[in-house]
């Protein structure tokens, strides 16, 4: 057997390396860092988010008893402005960072998504959709990025569970490559590349982590990192914001279960997850298929990854999926 295997992503064309010669056992990826109690609980700003930060959205069990709040980010990467001010500086193009930057906060300081009920996760999905629909037709908004950082190593500067939403005037490079790959495959083969992958995973079964009526979760064939997971609607759907109430509960179940399996199997590792969906720039994207991508932080990029853009995974996606499937939650 070869010491490594190069696999190509069917959508973007990017290559990854599965380093079988350096292969690790699933247990080797468990989070080894000491779990320290949060010493700043009493001073946590997010614990009073619904009262203190002029929220743009609040869900309540009853008056004053809030369960989720969406607030403007105190230190926004993008901010609303009436002018995009497109300009050049020498050979470079520049525009103002026009947009919206919001934080989606669940109330319980200690309960991250992997520990929540499906109903609680559905409330988060509801908030994603509510804010997306509210912002998608705003001036200068062409794409809305929704993402979640869990753990300091994954970029969560505040330990209180929260997601973020950034509405911006450009389409980010990762989504742009995905859109181009999907469009090229659509025109060449007259079918959705994501649907092709989903159908293959359903037939092959090696990389499936979980599935229910509407959604399937699996470790991609060309996983960019160990234990990468993706959650797709089984039906073709370009636009996340059009998700129905019936499908939202199915998505919430899939997201909760996959994150719970990662949490148990890898001992609460840091991770990021994010939404990839067709842009809201007024154009049609019938070839695209929205989905969530989950990226546990199991390694650090070094010289090879930085110089080539090729990522190295030290566990085969098939073994990672099998390990996660076996986790009882």
Structural write-up:
This protein has helices at 49-52, 118-135, 173-189, 193-204, 245-265, 303-308, 317-325, and strands at residues 5-8, 15-18, 57-62, 65-72, 87-89, 92-94, 100-106, 143-150, 162-168, 208-211, 215-218, 229-233, 271-276, 291-296, 311-313. With 329 residues, it is α+β, with helices and mostly antiparallel strands. The chain has a single domain (5-30, 43-325), classed as HIT family, subunit A (2-Layer Sandwich). The strands form three sheets. It has a ten-stranded antiparallel sheet with strand order 3-4-7-9-8-13-14-12-11-10, sandwiched between helices. A hairpin with a 6-residue loop joins strand 1 (5-8) and strand 2. Helix 2 packs across helix 5. The longest helix has 21 residues, at 245-265. It is globular.
Instruction: Please give the domain count.
Output: 1
CATH-assigned homologous superfamily: HIT-like
> At CATH's second level, what is the architecture?
2-Layer Sandwich
**CATH topology label:** HIT family, subunit A
Total helical segments: 7
């Amino acid at each position: 057997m070869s010491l490594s295997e190069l696999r190509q992503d069917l959508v973007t064309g990017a290559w990854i390396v599965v380093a079988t010669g350096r292969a690790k056992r699933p247990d080797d990826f468990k989070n080894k860092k000491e779990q320290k109690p949060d010493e700043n609980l009493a001073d946590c700003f997010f614990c009073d988010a619904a009262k203190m930060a002029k929220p743009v959205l609040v869900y309540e069990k009853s008056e004053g008893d809030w369960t989720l709040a969406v607030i403007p980010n105190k230190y926004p990467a993008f901010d609303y402005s009436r002018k995009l001010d497109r300009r050049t500086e020498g050979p470079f193009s520049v525009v103002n960072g026009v947009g919206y930057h919001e934080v989606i906060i669940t109330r319980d300081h200690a309960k991250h998504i992997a520990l929540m009920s499906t109903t609680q996760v559905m409330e988060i999905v509801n908030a994603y959709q509510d804010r997306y629909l509210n912002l998608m037709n705003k001036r200068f908004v062409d794409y809305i990025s929704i993402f979640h950082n869990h753990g300091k190593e994954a970029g969560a500067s505040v330990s209180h569970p929260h997601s973020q939403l950034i509405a911006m005037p450009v389409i980010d490079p990762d989504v742009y490559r995905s859109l181009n790959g999907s469009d090229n495959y659509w025109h060449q083969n007259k079918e959705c590349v994501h649907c092709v992958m989903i159908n293959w995973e359903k037939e092959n079964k090696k990389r499936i982590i979980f599935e229910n009526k509407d959604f399937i979760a699996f470790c991609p064939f060309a996983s960019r990192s160990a234990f990468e997971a993706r959650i797709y609607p089984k039906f073709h759907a370009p636009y996340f914001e059009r998700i129905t109430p019936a499908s939202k509960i199915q998505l919430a179940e899939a997201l909760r279960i996959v994150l719970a399996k990662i949490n148990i199997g890898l001992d609460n590792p840091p991770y990021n997850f994010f939404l990839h969906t067709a842009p809201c720039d007024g154009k049609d994207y019938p070839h695209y298929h929205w989905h969530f991508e989950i990226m546990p932080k199991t390694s650090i990029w070094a010289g090879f990854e930085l110089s080539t853009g090729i990522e190295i995974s030290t566990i085969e996606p098939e073994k990672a999926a099998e390990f996660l499937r076996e986790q009882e939650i």
